[in-house]
Structure formats: structure tokens, C-alpha cells
Amino acid sequence: xxxxxxTHTTLSDGSLTPMELIHRAVQRGYRAVAITDHMGxxxxxxxxxxxxxxxxxxxxxxxxIAMPGVEFTHLPPGAIGEAARAxxxxxxxxxxxxxxxxxEPVPAGTNLAALSSPHVDIxxxxxxxxxxxxxxxxxxxxxxxxxARKGHCLANGRVAKLGRQAGARLVVNSDTHHPEDMLxxxxxxxxxxxxxxxxxxxxEELPAGIAALLxxxxxxxxxxx
Length: 225
Ligand SMILES: [Zn+2]
Ligand SMILES: [Zn+2]
Prior knowledge:
The structure is a single chain. With about 220 residues, the chain is an alpha/beta fold. The protein has a single domain (about 5-220), classed as TIM Barrel. Helices cover about 45% and strands about 15% of the residues. The protein has helices at about 20-25, 45-60, 75-90, 110-115, 130-140, 155-165, 185-195, 200-215, 220-225, and strands at about 5, 30-40, 65-70, 95-100, 120-125, 145, 170-175. A seven-stranded parallel β-sheet has the order 1-2-3-4-5-6-7. Helix 1 (about 20-25) packs parallel to helix 2 (about 45-60) and helix 5 (about 130-140) packs across helix 6 (about 155-165). The longest helix has 18 residues, at about 45-60. The radius of gyration is 16 Å and the shape is globular. One zinc ion binds near residues 71, 98, 124 and 125.
């Protein structure tokens, strides 16, 4: 099942409108796609209202699960928990946090704050993830992202290794900004194998993680199939 829980549109720094992104996902055979533009707290409500409307329209015509989401980016760590709670209240189906990637000066403490919030679903590109953080992800059912994106992917091996050791679930996301970034099953497999996962993990644990995530964000079993 091809799903992608981390994409950007013209509403932040991507080049596709939400509807074009969803339509391209339909054409590629995605079962589910989440739109997760970079956000702080200003304009969150308007953004989520707009994306929710687009997702509902797409779902009413096309066979895809289209989820309004958000990627909280460079927020002060102390503000992440409350922002995530507010986003869920405003209709975000999925909340991800822009983790401490090696290639940007993300505020220290971001990973820990994200993994401590019950309203965060995915910690994106966690960079120099610690064992403590990986254990927290496992305990709280938050997925750790293995990133297909240039730069953010530099720590994929570490994230996969510590995540597996701690029993945390992993998810491969594209972090799409442009059409050529979108996933295929083959590319997702290569990214996972490149991060050090084995064939059986790619075949069994990644799909199990996707199923767990869809369940976590409230997609019914019937729609997940
Ligand atoms: Zn990010
Ligand atoms: Zn992103």
C-alpha cells in the first residue's frame, strides 16, 4: 500500500496546489496522502479550513484517503505541545513535527517536545536521534520518519537503527515539495533498504506501521483496506 504522510504545497514552499498534489497521488496509485505544510501557529485555522475543504472534495470524487495535516516547523519546543493540540482541535487529521535534521538549525529540544505530545503523530527527519527519544517514540506510538528527501536523509541509518532497537515504528515519507519528489513503491523500498532495513522489515513492518498510523489518526479499518 503506497501512502505518504509528509508533503508540501503552494500553501508553504511546495510547487503543487493541494488538489494537484492529491490528483497526482491518485494517479500514482497512493492509498493515502497527507498534506502537511510548514506552519507556526499564525494562520493555522485558516490553513486547516482550506486544506480540509480540498481533501473532502478530492475524497468525494477519487478513491484516496486525503488527510489535512501540518508540519510544525522551527517552533520553540515549549510551544509544540499546545500547537499540536490546537491543530487537532481545528481539524488536522495528522500532526508532524519538523525534527532536528542535520541540515538546519532546528531548536534543540524539538525532538523531545514532539515525542512528548499525545497530539503528534510523526517526528519527521529526527537527525541525531537519541536512545531516550527513540524509546519515547515507541512508548507513545509516534512514528519516526525515514526521509526520502535530500539532506534530511543523512541520518536515516541512525534513525532506523535506534528506532528498531527501541521498538518504535518507522515510516518512509517523501517530504514532497515538487512533483518529482513523490514516491513509488520501488523508490520507497530503496530508501528503506538504504537506511539499513532488511527485506522482511520492508515487506512486513513498514506496512504494519502504516496500518497503525492510519488507525491512530482515526481512519476506519474498512477505508484502510
Ligand atoms: Zn521538515
Ligand atoms: Zn517537510
